[in-house]
Specification:
By secondary structure, the protein is an alpha/beta fold. It is built from eleven helices and nine strands. The protein folds into two domains: 136 residues, Aspartate/ornithine carbamoyltransferase (Rossmann fold, 3-Layer(aba) Sandwich), CATH 3.40.50.1370; 155 residues, Rossmann fold (3-Layer(aba) Sandwich), CATH 3.40.50.1370.
Length: 307
Amino acid sequence: MSLKGKDIVSIRDLSKGEILEILNHAKEMIPVAKGKKKLKLLEGKILASLFFEPSTRTRLSFETAMHRLGGSVIGFADPSITSLRKGENIVDTIRMADAYSDVIVIRHPKEGTARMAAEFAEAPVINAGDGAGRHPTQCLLDLFTILMEKGKLEGMKVVLLGDLKYGRTVHSLAYALALFGAELVFVSPESLRMPKEIVEDCIELGVEPVSTTDLEKAIRDADVLYVTRIQKERFPDPTEYSRVIGSYKVDMNLLKHAKEDLIVMHPLPRIDEISPEVDKTRHAVYFKQAFNGVPVRMSILSKVLGG
């Protein structure tokens, strides 16, 4: 199968086979991502990095991935310094980026913007996060992390914890894990439960998630604990945020109830939902997870550009 020229706006844009193709190729990219091996697969290719919303790991890992493969990067991380400030509409900005590059990576606070960009651009468009919607490349690196740490994706019991309403990473990941037949448990405050449509998608794939507020019970036989921060910037009402901040804390006391081989993941940045004392335990893999963004995004870029 070929992914050349394909837009990746949602994890739903990829079949199970295509997901595995990207993940398996990412394994081969690890030495290149670490700088131990050189590849010029994308020499002469240009990535347009359009970030209308703050980002550290996603933006830098995409840029690192492109440079490691011999390509170049143009773009911006602050839309206030672009012609948008002069009143240019976003469609014209996309068209210009399309004219200057071979692939577009876009992050935007408004859900649906990446899909719109894909309609106007001839180059493949990769969604780097659109509001509270989707984050397919984060989903792929999350799957890759589970695969590397556990050796498989099928049959894992995964607890998704925190802001499940506004957290775009868990929206993509829940669907993908259901595609691989994982057992899913959703833990959140009542006001931040997983959206109904995501739950229905999982059920359609043959997985019926369990929703609960009892974290201690949920992790007792879990293989993976995926933690998310409460997304303050997504809340329409600040008082709603103040009611739920600090609802859950992953610390050493909590992990006493977990299996020895439980892995704790987090898309980062974290605020106070994971205690720093957890960082040095065998459970913590979130910094490995962040690094995994480089080989996975190398794989994605090389596939959509036909490298």
